[in-house]
Request: fold
Amino acid sequence: MTLLAPDAGERMTLAAVKGRSLWDDAGRRLMRNKAAVASMIVLGVLVLLAAIGPYLVPFAYDQVDKQDVWLPPLKEGHLLGSDALGRDLTARLLTGLRVSLAIGLVATTVSLVIGVAWGAVAGYVGGKLDEVMMRAVDVLYSLPFIFFVILLMVTFGSNIILIFVAIGAVEWLTMSRIVRGQTLTLKNKEFVEAARAAGLSRGAIIARHIVPNLLGPVVVYVTLTIPAVILAESFLSFLGLGVQPPMASLGTLIAGGASDMELAPWLLVFPSLVMVVTLMCFNFIGDGLRDAIDPKDR
Amino acid sequence: MLRYIGRRLLIAIPTLFLVITAAFFMMRAAPGSPFDGDRKLLPEIEANVLAKYGMNKPLGAQYVDYLAGVARGDLGPSLKYRDKTVLDILNENYPVSLKLGLSAISIAAVFGVSLGVMAALRQNGPVDHTVMTVAILGVCIPTFVTAPLLVLGLASKLGWFPTAGWNDGALINMVLPVTVLALPQIAIISRLTRAGMIEVLRSNYVRTARAKGLPESLIVRKHALRAALLPLVSYLGPACAGLITGSLVVEKIFNLPGLGKFFVISALQRDYTVVMGMVIFYAALILVLNLVADLLYAVLDPRVRLA
Reply:
């Protein structure tokens, strides 16, 4: 809450103190939610594994070994077995998890920046501009987006940066609607009026007073966007349009596993398991955060 | 009402125009051409082929031609399937996708609503927790995980269902693909129903009905359910989009002759006209469904006034 302008007067200080205690409350409520806490622990472990795991496995994710193909789990030092090229599934899975999580974070950040900026400006400025901006969102909403992402990948080839941008550009619409709704209620609050009276420009009010106060609903939506992005990426990878081999993502691993599942079911089961656990953790944390920050539905 | 429909249709036209424009130029910006084959065509033959499809003109002129064609309802010939028009391909393959999608959404509606009502009536009880856990699982397990796992378990190992194929829509062939498509929708619909029911059961008119001494089953069926299902109507559009996305995967995994299978292949083969035709088809479908959802909403809920 130190983001608030220092010149905004005593009322602001009071609001800041009260605001912090609200966050404390939310934190306490979140900690009482067993599913959310368990998910945070599991997710923490998964993130740690994705970060350092690949260095602990004695194989590289793209290391081909013609001797050790189709090994089931726990054979010849391959903890989770190996694939058709003798590549170690543990190494590939950890690398894939890392790639998927990275895509989730980066693409969500892209959608966050676009969505918050778009929604805050539309909501705060209002009038004709609001109408035009939100009408554009409505129009984009009604497009079969997956087709455009597919077309984008086909047009520009699938490189990782493009995957970030394409998925992020699709996911910002809901964010902008949430942010606009919040901005509409915020902009008539006393502290915004005070900032206006103090002579701050529109841009400064949006950046320093509106956006920091949007944090609650935005945080909730971000935790629910990350799994949606991971899902979208693996969907593309499954269709052969996402991350390209020998690089791995959870989606490419599942796609590969699905085609070899009769011979080597472990290639399908382990990546699927990691994917489902990861997505569930994000969803439980998101639900927990929503209950904690906005307790009216309990 | 009629004025509202008219206005919405007027908005739909620029939206479709935008879709067509974006898809057209993206498709053309892609490297490669539909006539790239294993053998390189002789320059004269290639020039002839290009001329036949009007592709020797500048891109702007081709775009205008295409728009004029679409306005007349002509989506052009396929560039890969030489003796078929895009309309032929759409016509031949949409029934499969439609049958899959309709079966999935009907099953999802029945199961989702029942589960949601059951959970709401026993809020915070064991039934509620089970249903909500299953619902979260349904949202988190992507179709391309459920599909191969079901095939591996129920088809390959147990042999109850065929692993793939359409077989003219035989029931046994449809069980697995429809299940896979329906599962995420069941999850979402049960969550929506539960949330709606919980809110409605707390409302004043339900309390009034209870005070009158009406039996609980009548209150649930007549008073609560109707209002609680309203949010589902607005979910119609997104549900359709979800089914389309799902069908891309399901038709690929189960090797079904539907539209979804064509899209990715056609995009990769640079079959411009087929890709454009499918984008237009799906965009129009989603626009119409969104309109239907809004109209239904207004009909079902007298509090909503269309303006």
